[in-house]
Specification:
This protein is α/β, with parallel strands linked by helices. It is built from 10 helices and 23 strands. About 2% of the residues have low confidence.
Length: 441
């Protein structure tokens, strides 16, 4: 709460949080929306949100004048005039949390999840020119680091239902930290896909001037009504607001904690470059095109799968621990071409061989991310794959291999069938050969 002195000045001018105000001080003039006071701000200063999106604190003092320029905007959908244009392609928005589908409440200063298409439109009015988001569903509402495989299944069921409706496509808004896990899961769970499923998130919250939320959502809308039938992630392609990349759901990975272009395609080109004005450049010929027919839901998933990272001195007893807890499969992030400690003091070979014999699969990927596992180059690799019986993960991302193994184990426990399915390309997760342009795209 502002100090009594400030509240008196605001009240006398008929000003309340959310109103547009003009503040004049010697040599300076500022306009913006009056923000509520936070617990950390100076009670004798006011905070306004400038048109740039940034907040500014202004201390009251001699010569400072303030006047109201306009009434505040409402915070609920009921007071909004914005409507989607009729006649535009119908799409649905499935909200699972994250900041991209949130808006600022100027009475409290907080950011909360939008609950209707009209609220989304109030944040991103350009959407009305692209599509009619006539349905908004929220099967999950949590930070993405709190997601579990059960949440993937819940999301897939809702998306599946919308895909088999009149919708042209579906946008899934999602927190960025584990969005690439969810995109991989939807890629395997949704079979015979005939329409696009576009995941979009925001690296920077919608109340910041540098937010990427709006443009990511606009580009995702363009993809959702395009001629593609893929599950993919649509996010900034550069730090600037130039274009987005639509990346295959099994080949996308978050590669930076905070950059707006954090999501990159690994081991292949993005499916498309997407500009906010709707222009699209197809950059990967290996893509499924829009078609007809029902999309099938195949979301059987074995949750008892673990990911293990190889590092110097890593103890193989961790595998025994997981097996004792009932785990049914492992994805190993090996070094280089897929190495694990072989002739080391703490060799992993004996443990892997023992558990494979007992019917527990080990899929080996590379922690380098780029490139592919090769079972034949070195003696240690031949021992791991030929003698111990591990399955090479080809050029799959570790996260994608983890999701795929859980999905495969949801269907079969037969080791030969598991091996066959893990080496089968279902959703573009395995490329036939590595291409030079797929590195650091």
């Amino acid at each position: 709460m502002y100090s009594p002195k400030v509240r008196k000045i605001l009240s006398s001018a008929g000003i309340k949080p959310g109103d547009r105000i003009r503040v004049e001080r010697p040599g300076k003039v500022y306009e913006g929306l009056l923000m509520p006071k936070t617990e950390f701000s100076d009670p004798n200063s006011i905070v306004i949100k400038l048109d740039s999106g940034y907040n500014m604190g202004i201390a009251f003092g001699r010569g400072v004048k303030i006047r109201k320029m306009g009434s505040g905007r409402g915070t609920g959908a009921g007071g909004m005039k914005a409507k989607f244009g009729k006649g535009k392609p119908k799409i649905s928005l499935v909200s699972t949390g994250g900041t991209i589908a949130s808006r600022v409440d100027y009475r409290t200063g907080g950011v909360y999840a939008a609950s209707s298409p009209e609220e989304i439109l109030s944040n991103v009015p350009e959407l009305a020119d692209i599509a009619d988001i006539h349905e908004m569903l929220s099967p999950v509402n949590k930070m993405s680091e709190d997601f579990s495989p059960k949440d993937w299944v819940k999301t897939a069921k809702v998306v599946h239902k919308r895909l088999n409706s009149e919708d042209m496509g579906v946008i899934v808004t999602h927190g960025t930290d584990t969005m690439h896990f969810t995109s991989a899961a939807l890629s395997f769970f949704l079979r015979n896909l005939a329409k696009p499923v576009v995941l979009a998130g925001a690296q920077r919250s919608s109340d910041r001037g540098s937010s990427d939320a709006g443009m990511n959502l606009v580009c995702a809308a363009h993809v959702s009504v395009s001629d593609v039938a893929e599950v993919g992630i649509c996010m900034h392609g550069e730090m600037s607001d130039s274009f987005c990349l639509f990346i295959r759901g099994t080949k996308a990975r978050k590669m930076h904690t905070s950059r707006r272009d954090a999501f990159r395609p690994i081991n292949e080109n993005p499916i498309a470059k997407v500009w906010p004005d709707g222009r699209m450049e197809w950059t990967n010929m290996k893509r499924r095109k829009r078609g007809k027919g029902e999309t099938e839901l195949d979301a059987r998933f074995e949750e008892r799968v673990a990911m293990l990272k190889v590092y110097p001195g890593a103890d193989p007893e961790i595998m025994d621990f997981y097996v004792s807890k009932g785990y049914r499969g492992f994805v190993i992030e090996g070094t280089g071409l897929g190495h694990v400690p072989t002739f080391a003091e703490k060799s992993w070979i004996k443990s892997i061989k023992k558990h494979v014999k007992d019917g527990i699969p080990f899929v080996v990927t590379s922690q380098t991310l780029y490139g592919r596992v090769n079972p034949d180059v070195y003696t240690n690799l031949r021992i791991l794959f030929r003698e111990a019986g591990a399955i090479p993960g080809e050029d799959m991302l570790p996260e994608t291999a983890y999701v795929k193994l859980g999905w495969v184990l949801g269907h079969t426990q037969d080791m030969e069938e598991i091996r066959k399915r893990m080496l089968t390309d279902y959703a573009g997760e395995i490329t036939e050969r590595s291409v030079p342009e797929g590195f650091l795209m």
